[in-house]
Specification:
5 helices
Length: 276
């Protein structure tokens, strides 16, 4: 009844890379999206009124009635969708690739659609960066399934027809509401590919050296990996020629000294308070 929360199984489907399609390509993508998902529901014996669907532009939100066995969705429906996608994508230059988020929980109906935290989580899982990265890394695969921790515990772990818990891999994902655990599976593969590690930002040098800086021999200083001049050691002071002898100034550097001369006759160094 409208305004009352009911328990339901939530399936959120989203098309990968739909934002790159032109206005003339989108209608065909949507037609194929409804065809492969709707046919899979029909093949699994899930039909209205036990199936509610809501258009999401480049995706579809489906909520199943409480009497629909969730294991049928996790098993048969997912496998039928995978086969339908393979058939639909045959010989296409731009294959349809889908992300499917699965969750179960309380759903509230009103005149505008379905809402609830359970709906939000199914949509967030489907749209998370890890799901997109895994499908992108799964070259040639048309589908990635993302199950919530609850769906995995209650309906994946027990196994069953077309449900192999060994094919799922756990990842902690960052959502708008915070971090949560999700389980990923790519149909047709024994395990999903690992998503690439996020790139670390390059830390620039604290004190970049100008391009005109030169080394002790007058040549340009070395260049760091970030395009700035790398730090060079201080150049020792030049010796002063007085004829037969060289007079050299001695500069203190921390616990050491720099001394440079062609020939040193007498060297007196008074070091107070430092090391020996």
């Amino acid at each position: 009844m409208e305004g009352e929360a009911a328990y339901g199984f939530i399936v959120n489907v989203d098309a990968q890379g739909s934002g790159l399609l032109s206005d003339t390509e989108k209608p065909e993508m949507r037609r194929r999206l409804y065809d492969v998902t709707g046919t899979a529901f029909e093949q699994a014996g899930i039909r209205p009124p036990r199936l509610y669907q809501e258009d999401r532009g480049d995706g579809i939100l489906s909520v199943l009635a409480p009497d629909v066995p969730p294991a049928r969705v996790v098993g048969e429906w997912v496998q039928q969708l995978h086969q339908n996608l393979r058939e639909s994508n045959r010989d296409l230059r731009k294959p349809l690739r889908l992300r499917v988020g699965l969750h179960i929980g309380r759903v509230t109906a009103d005149a505008y659609g379905r809402s609830g935290r359970a709906v939000d989580l199914a949509c967030r899982l489907c749209d998370c960066g890890t799901a997109k990265a895994i499908l992108k890394a799964a070259d040639g695969a048309p589908l990635v399934v993302i199950a919530s921790d609850r769906v995995h515990e209650d309906f994946v772990l027990p196994g069953g027809r077309w449900v192999d818990p060994e094919h799922y891999r756990r990842h902690d994902v960052e959502l708008k509401e915070g971090r949560t655990t999700a389980w990923f599976m790519v149909p047709g593969r024994s395990e999903p590919p690992e998503p690439p590690e996020p790139r670390e930002a390059t830390v620039p040098s604290a004190e970049p050296v100008p391009d005109s800086a030169a080394g002790p021999d007058g040549t340009p200083g070395p260049t760091g990996t970030n395009g700035t001049k790398a730090s060079t050691p201080p150049r020792p002071p030049a010796a002063t020629d007085t004829g037969d002898r060289f007079v050299q100034n001695i500069h203190q550097h921390g616990d050491g000294e720099i001394i440079a001369a062609k020939r040193i006759e007498t060297l007196n160094s008074d070091r107070r308070g430092g090391g020996r």
